[in-house]
Amino acid sequence: MDSKQLEKYSSAISLSDMEIFVFPELMYSLVLANIMSPVLWEWREHPTFKKIENKSPWRKLLRMRQFIMDEYEFNLDLETWGMSNKDTELKRFAPFISPEEISKSNALFGYQGDEYYFDIGIRRHFGLDKYSSDVLPYWKTETIEAMNAFKYKQGYSHGAGECVSLAALYIAAAFIVCGISLEDMYMILTPLHSQNFIDLQDGAITNNRRVVTKGMWFNGTAITDKAQRAMRNEEITIVSHPSGYIHCLYEDATISKDVYEKFKKRLSSFLTVDLDMSTFANFLRFRHKYQESFVFCRHLRGDDKYIRAEVLFQYEHSNPIRIGSDSLDKIFSDVSEEDFHPFKPDDRVCVEQLIRFIKRSGIDIHTQEGRSLCKTYFDKYMDDSEQFVAELSEFCKIEARLPSSDKRFIDNQGIEISSDMTREEIIDYLKDKRDTNTTADLAFYAYRDMRECPWQPFLKASLERCPVSIEACKDYNNEKIYDWLRSMENESIYDSSRLAHPDEVANYYRGDGLEKAITMANVLLSRDASMEITITVDKDIVVLLADDEYEFISRKSFQKRICISNGRYEVSSLS
User: Fold this and answer.
1) Is the pLDDT of residue 121 over 70?
2) Cα–Cα distance for residue pair 408/3, rounded to 1 Å
């Protein structure tokens, strides 16, 4: 590999958020690595999913949501994967993208987001304000094995992962367990978040551990407001799909142009809702400051009944039913007589009358004409009617800021696999695609299968981007480092010929002997970069030769000699 290839392929090992931004193929490579993992295929046999194996993909997806919420925590702890600095990373990425471009679009390099993020302060929001301004976190995206291994890390009782990890997990699990076609799922990355759009029924968006349906997307609750934050406030930097990707900064796009145009239409439909009773009630729940301008009304037992909006919303707090078109009668039946009024206050709008007026007049809140008619209607009830209508319109339609379609679309010979295929068939298919599809090739590096990949990318990532293992040993002499490694469980978090990198060994306090030897090499080199190190792996015996000789036990059955000298990594076979 030349230096640029080595940078990209080693990034498939470390899989940090900033590396995915620069090398967008990595996003789907992680999905494919999870699809190849035996761990996800075992989910099919889990009692949770065996019970519903004959149900629809949509039903399975909604059950998947609860399973993932039960099994995984959201983790964005700064110390999990350690720190780097802007100068180091900008120098790394300079051959691929200019510092000015990356700073405009990536949160770790200066991007400040829109109004919401300016208000809260990006660095303070993520806890980075306690470090100098050039320090940035190695937010590494985890494979499913690394996510599951959090249960071994102090302070965790379950698996965990950050937003990109959870997004990749959802795509792979929805494909394997729910039987949803990869072609119907799209990964959406912004400078500060990662979500998926699943084109099933009316659509759904995965957000960290949750699945948000269209009905939920517009329910006006605080938790949905958080789910919408990235879509409302940020530019979308990458859309990733089995046919390829499109990036906000790169001229070339490998995603199918027809697929991308279809995605834009389907996402726009999901992000748009008609203005009816339920939508208006949801808006008042979302912008509760406006509730004091409205009443809800019903004709009950021969009389008109009116209740102030803010009072009716108080009844929601103790009621599982939400105010809407089909539920208003039920909510009204729970209202105390003393909260009803026989007449509508002159300074308030009756929501039912408003909705009838909108239907009768054929008003479309998504058009300028419709908004003007609404403003005229509200003028006599509120001083800020123009602002009110603007916020109502924005609530009913989010304009996603997607990468422009003005790109050079390149035929990428996309990934075409089916959930009817076996795991072995999928792996064989991806092996056959490696020569013609970079994403498929990178997937084996993200999968960490060292019988299928050259070792230099793995060693480069492991010995140059693993600060946590170095920090863990900062007070240890070399003998103490050796004792610390030998005290760990001699068990890898990865099966067969797959390897964990040093920071996974340190975080989860376990590793195969070969992984431990590479971890020790990482710490030794951090203290003396000129040190020459040889690691000899002869099936079950691993010997690291540096300032002294250190022996470990391995179950990986490799026969390799690794020579590390002045930043060069040479690997040869013993057999």
Assistant:
1) no
2) 26
